[in-house]
């Protein structure tokens, strides 16, 4: 089953940095209206660092609309906690080293071509201009990102399946999804 076939968001158990298990559904069920679930590529990805800070800068707008931002990245729970602290992110950052949740949501591996495609250059240059720098790889370099708008009942309302390394919808575009655009 791919994400395009989904109507109900797959639930998944993550382990946080404290070693406690948390269900993804705990987030959407406790949010006033739902969550914006963002799958980052890996914690050293300059595209992901840029997107994470963009989401941080618009966090109050998501909260004001009743949506909690939740990010998932490749790596360990300790690495996700460090990423969250390093970028002063007000939202949870979960880790899935084995990429099981990525597969449940239909996210693909782009191969090395996803990094060298011209369409990945524009977001790469933008990220560099905004101060993002690549960090240490922790996981698959080829993993593509994805973004899902999920309501309190676990239904996927909108989704964006990344086709290359820098293929993230802008925070303002995601806010447009929420506003009915």
- CATH C-level category: Alpha Beta
Major β-sheet, in short?
5 strands, mixed
Query: What is the β-strand count?
Result: 7
Instruction: Give the N-terminus to C-terminus distance in angstroms.
Output: 27 Å
Summarize model confidence as the mean pLDDT. 85
Based on the model shown, name its key terms.
181 residues; single chain; 7 strands; two-stranded antiparallel ribbon; alpha/beta
What does this protein look like?
- The chain is of the alpha/beta class and 181 residues long.
- A 5-stranded mixed beta sheet has the order 5-4-3-6-7. Strands 1-2 form a two-stranded antiparallel sheet.
- Helix content is 35%, strand content 21%.
- It has one domain (3-178): Glutaredoxin (3-Layer(aba) Sandwich).
- Residues 121-128 have low confidence and may be disordered.
- The longest helix is centred in the N-terminal third of the chain and has 12 residues, at 46-57.
- The protein is built from 8 helices and 7 strands; from the N terminus they run ββαβααβαβαααββα.
- The protein has helices at residues 24-30, 46-57, 59-64, 77-86, 100-104, 113-116, 118-129, 171-178; strands at residues 13-15, 21-23, 34-42, 67-74, 93-95, 146-151, 156-161.
- The radius of gyration is 15 Å and the shape is globular.
- α2 packs across α7 (118-129).
The gist of it:
The protein is α/β, with parallel strands linked by helices and 181 residues long. 35% of the residues lie in helices and 21% in strands. The strands form two sheets. A five-stranded mixed beta sheet has the order 5-4-3-6-7. Strands 1-2 form a two-stranded antiparallel ribbon.
């Amino acid at each position: 089953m791919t994400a395009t076939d989904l109507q109900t968001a797959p639930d998944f158990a993550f382990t946080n940095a404290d070693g406690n298990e948390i269900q993804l559904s705990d987030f959407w069920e406790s949010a006033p209206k739902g969550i914006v679930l963002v799958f980052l590529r890996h914690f050293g990805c300059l595209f992901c660092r840029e997107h994470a800070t963009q989401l941080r800068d618009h966090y109050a707008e998501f909260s004001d609309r009743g949506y909690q931002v939740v990010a998932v990245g490749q790596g360990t729970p300790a690495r996700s906690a460090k990423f969250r602290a390093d970028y002063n992110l007000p939202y949870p950052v979960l880790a899935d080293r084995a990429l099981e949740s990525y597969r449940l949501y239909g996210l693909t591996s782009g191969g090395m071509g996803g990094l060298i495609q011209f369409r990945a250059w524009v977001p790469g240059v933008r990220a560099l201009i905004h101060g993002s720098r690549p960090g240490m790889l922790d996981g698959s370099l080829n993993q593509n990102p994805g973004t899902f708008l999920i309501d309190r009942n676990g239904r996927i309302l909108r989704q964006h399946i990344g086709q290359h390394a820098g293929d993230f919808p802008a925070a303002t575009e995601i806010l447009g999804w929420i506003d009915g655009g």
